[in-house]
TrEMBL record, chain A:
Organism field: Salinibacillus kushneri
Membrane topology: Multi-pass membrane protein
Lineage: Bacteria, Bacillati, Bacillota, Bacilli, Bacillales
Pathway stated in the Swiss-Prot or TrEMBL entry: Energy metabolism; oxidative phosphorylation
Matching SUPFAM superfamilies: Cytochrome c oxidase subunit I-like
Protein name: Quinol oxidase subunit 1
Family classification: Belongs to the heme-copper respiratory oxidase family.
GO MF term list: copper ion binding; cytochrome-c oxidase activity; heme binding; oxidoreductase activity, acting on diphenols and related substances as donors, oxygen as acceptor
From TrEMBL, chain B:
The name this protein goes by in its record: Quinol oxidase subunit 4
NCBIfam families in UniProt: QoxD
EC number from the UniProt entry: 1.10.3.-
One GO CC term, this protein: cytochrome o ubiquinol oxidase complex
Reactions performed catalytically: 2 a quinol + O2 = 2 a quinone + 2 H2O
Similarity comment text for this entry: Belongs to the cytochrome c oxidase bacterial subunit 4 family.
Length: 649, 94
């Protein structure tokens, strides 16, 4: 019995028990449903073992949307708790757990897979490739991410959630102050997902550098692909720092080492330092693909080519370097001297310059454009002003002397939500709506889509602007309640309304997906938006080999010139196509990682050792296995092309 | 005959052995902490560079530009991170 005690929830509540029941029922329903409809084989063959970048992209997308709802429920609970003074909806411990998991879920398990979903689906198409450079590795990336996310998400029903903030600062996150296994989950689940992300980084750099269609020089790449390249470079240089920090944190918690302890030669501040060495580049990992999406959407719907292509590229290259030079701005108040703070203040303000350049480029693209306001465009237009407010308040925070006032108040919370929400969430929703017809062969309803966009746009402002005021008045972040005398009540009530608007907006998006799946016309052209880049040159939905004939690129807007100026894009005849084989090993290996992680969280060493052996066995299998892929015959290609609406040249 | 003899590889192999032995000496001989660590750092980085260039063929394909850009970028980021951390946590800490 003693053995099982460790799995109990240290701080239970009826809501958690209800969730346990709900999770149990959902799992049973899924299993019964799959069995009843005889879908196990389909699931295994078409999805679990797939190495197709498009399917992996869609799986990332589904995970991201699920996590958006998990994180969204957390958010609504927090806003509800704070809506009135001295509320007792949540107690302090639950509040701590909720804001910690909210942050991790939103950044690591929602925003990251969302950007990786779009990169997976779109980048190979935009560069005219058949797949990513290492399709099998791509599947492993996804499954590692997925298992990491699942491991993190079971924490609240088995053993207890992490409660030391998404930043998990030591010494609070150490064994002395965080006694439950919650922080073990944090360390290990993020580690597993992070390994997947690191592999994605390597994979996409190789893909973009090596697999571009003939004629597509770097300076002819579409801007979204450029942003993906830079993002993945940042991933490869930033994530190892997180890996190391998490490994050290895990050892501190499980094996009594003293990296981040306050005594015995440990240094708690080193965690904060390493966390932000990764953490600040991470915010640019999130924002750059979003910039890429806007750089596709805005020219398409302003019907002009992107203003200042070169300066767009250069500003991203500069951001790529500068994003590694500013991390100390997250702990100006930790005790370093004025000189250090001044240096990092200046680098931080400098990073606003390339960001500003991009904003102006979009504005100039819009200038004199023939603007069509579609849903993706609406998100882009809402993004520009709201993000600018977020950015400007960032520069305020960047002044280290002033930051002593703002730090850890709701002002900071307002800043980062007003950059991340328009930056990442709007962009991903814009990208989702924009590329939806490419992915699924029908369009999302524009009317519902615009309602959702307006609700989310206005909801963001209503939810976060009041925090600037309450923050300057002294409301601290991460506090589970406040007294009536503080006068914060009104601002938090307004913010609660904003949060409700956001929630309604997201529900509308789900409804839109349902509605359009049922009613939208399937009879749409391959290029329904009259867009500019190569992904629109193939059919919708895209056949498994992407392009029957590899396109020939000789200008920045090759597809546009192909449409408008009769430049030939597809030269030559069909040829046999070499495709990679599916494999179940990435899934099995990641499942073993899940077991390993779970065993580590609860210190069940025998299980950990067995699953670790399994993981190495999978790697061994991969090293020895002979897998040469398969060939699609010319006849097969012809047949598919005819079925999809004839040769597309 | 001259082209067939793998002079570069052989020299590389011998140098990497020497570097390993020098690093090992730090363990067996009684250096001060600073001297020992200096030797380790120098031998480690020379060793890594040697392996990359001689045995992993950086610079022998037409990806040379991308590979070296990556390595230099990595070195720059690593140095900035290390010295930045030292600045924040040790030298500039009051
Ligand atoms: C205009 C450029 C930006 C500047 C000058 C800037 C500046 C800052 C500063 C100085 C802080 C720390 C404040 C404090 O802790 O007291 C901060 C926090 C933060 N920023 Fe920004 N920022 C910028 C853009 C962004 C972007 C684009 C994102 C994300 C996409 C972002 C996400 C965050 C997050 C998540 C935090 C808070 C993390 C935490 O403590 O939990 N920032 N920013
Ligand atoms: Cu930052």
């Amino acid at each position: 019995m003693e053995f099982f005690e460790r799995f109990a929830i240290p701080h239970p509540s009826p809501a958690i028990y209800a969730s346990m029941v709900a999770i149990g029922l959902t799992v049973i329903a899924i299993i019964v449903g799959l069995t009843y409809f005889k879908k196990w084989g389909y699931l295994w063959r078409e999805w679990i073992t797939t190495v197709d970048h498009k399917r992996i992209g869609i799986m990332y997308l589904i995970s991201a949307l699920l996590m958006l709802f998990r994180g969204g429920v957390d958010a609504i609970m927090m806003r509800a708790q704070l809506a009135v003074p001295e509320n007792t909806l949540l107690d302090s411990q639950h509040y701590n757990e909720i804001f910690s998991t909210h942050g991790v879920v939103m950044i690591i398990f929602m925003a990251m897979p969302f950007i990786i979903a779009l990169m997976n689906y779109i980048v190979p198409l935009q560069i005219g490739a058949r797949d990513v450079a290492f399709p099998r590795l791509n599947a492993l990336s996804f499954w590692l991410f997925f298992m990491g996310a699942m491991l993190f998400n079971i924490s609240f029903v088995i053993g207890g959630s992490p409660d030391a903030g998404w930043t998990s600062y030591f010494p609070l996150a150490g064994n002395e102050f965080s006694k439950s296994v919650g922080t073990n989950y944090y360390m290990i689940a993020i580690q597993i997902a992070g390994l997947g992300t690191l592999m994605t980084g390597i994979n996409f750099i190789a893909t973009i550098l090596k697999m571009r269609a003939p004629g597509m020089t770097l300076m002819k790449m579409p801007m979204f692909t450029w942003s993906a390249l830079i993002t993945n470079i940042i991933i490869v240089f930033a994530f190892p720092v997180l890996t190391v920090a998490l490994a050290m944190g895990t050892m501190d918690r499980l094996f009594a080492t003293h990296f981040f302890t306050t005594g015995n030669g440990g240094m708690d501040m080193l965690w904060a330092n390493l966390f932000w060495v990764w953490g600040h580049p991470e915010v640019y990992i999130l924002i750059l693909p979003a910039f890429g999406v806007y750089s596709e959407v805005i020219p398409t719907f302003a019907r002009r080519n992107l203003y200042g292509y070169r300066s767009m590229v250069w500003s991203m290259v500069i951001i790529c370097l500068l994003s590694f030079l500013v991390w100390v701005h997250h702990f100006f108040t930790m005790g370093q001297g004025a000189l250090v703070n001044s240096i990092f203040s200046i680098t931080t303000m400098a990073i606003a310059v390339p960001t500003g350049i991009k904003i102006f480029n979009w504005l100039f693209t819009l200038w004199k454009g023939k603007i069509r306001i579609t849903t993706p465009m609406l998100y882009s237009l809402l993004f520009i002003p709201i993000f600018t407010i977020g950015g400007v308040t960032g520069v305020m925070l960047a002044m280290s002397a002033a930051d002593y006032q703002y730090h850890n108040t709701m002002f900071l919370v307002a800043h980062f939500h007003l950059v991340i929400i328009p930056g990442v969430v709007f962009a991903m929703l814009a990208g989702l709506t924009y590329w939806w017809p490419k992915m699924f062969g029908f369009m999302l309803n524009e009317r519902i889509g615009k309602w959702a966009a307006w609700l989310i746009g206005i909801g963001t402002c209503v939810a976060f602007f009041p925090m600037f005021i309450s923050g300057l008045d002294g409301q601290a972040r991460r506090m589970f309640t406040y007294s009536e005398a503080t006068g914060f009540g009104i601002w938090n009530m307004i913010a609660f309304f904003g949060a409700i608007m956001l929630a309604v907006g997201f529900v509308l998006i789900v409804y839109n997906i349902y509605y359009s799946t049922r009613y939208a016309s399937r009879d749409i052209p391959a290029d329904p938006w009259d867009a500019r880049s190569l992904e629109w040159a193939t059919h919708s939905p895209v056949p498994e080999y992407n392009f029957a004939i590899t396109p020939d690129v000789n200008s920045r807007d090759a597809f546009w010139n192909h449409k408008k100026n009769n430049q030939k894009l597809f030269k030559g005849d069909y040829q046999e196509i070499h495709m990679p084989n599916n494999s179940g090993v990435p899934f099995i290996m990641s499942a073993l990682f899940f077991v390993f992680g779970f065993a580590m969280v609860f210190s069940v060493w025998i299980l950990a050792i067995i699953s670790a052996i399994g993981i190495f066995a999978c790697m061994g299998h991969r090293s020895l296995e002979k897998d040469h892929g398969h060939h699609l015959s010319v006849d097969h290609i012809k047949e598919t092309e005819e079925k999809l609406g004839g040769a597309n040249s | 005959m001259k082209e067939l003899f793998p002079r570069k590889q052989l020299l590389g192999f011998v140098s990497s052995l020497i570097l390993t032995i020098v690093a090992l000496l730090v363990y067996f001989l009684d250096f001060s902490f600073t001297v020992g660590l200096t030797i380790l750092l120098i031998t480690a980085f020379t060793q890594a560079a040697l392996q990359l260039v001689v045995f992993m063929h950086a610079g022998e394909t037409k990806d040379r530009g991308a590979i070296y850009t990556n390595i230099y970028y990595g070195i720059i980021i690593a140095l900035l991170t290390i010295f930045g951390s030292l600045l924040a946590l040790a030298w500039g800490y009051v």
